Amino acid sequence: MISFSKVVVEKGDRVILRDINVELHEKRVGIIGRNGSGKSTFARLFNGLEKPTSGTISFDGSTEPKDLRGKVGFVFQNPDNQIVYPIVGEDLAFGLKNMKLSKTAIEERIAEVTARFQIEHLQDRLTHQLSGGERQMVALVGVLVMQPQMIIFDEPTTLLDLWNKRRLMRAITDLQEHVVLISHDLDLLRQFDRVIHIEAGRIVGDGEPNAVIDDYIARSE
Question: Suppose 212 and one of 27, 56, 106, 195 were both cysteines; which one would form an S-S bond, judging by CB atoms 3.0 to 4.6 Å apart?
Answer without folding.
Answer: 195
